[in-house]
Amino acid sequence: MTVRPTEQVKEQASAMLDEHNLTVQAYLLACLAELLAEPERRIREVEPYVPPPKPSGRPPKKRKPDSGP
Prior knowledge:
This protein has about 70 residues and is mostly helical.
């Protein structure tokens, strides 16, 4: 699994978790475990923070300009 938060989010989250002696990885693993334990509650609580889906696949190729006759 690859997660790429913005640098600002990553730095701020890391700093906040450091205050509680947690790493980002440990926190995310704990969140996944909690999701399995209480799925409906967790999904409801994080819903406002879920980003919109990103397009999947490769971006469209750039078209070459028409070279004319």
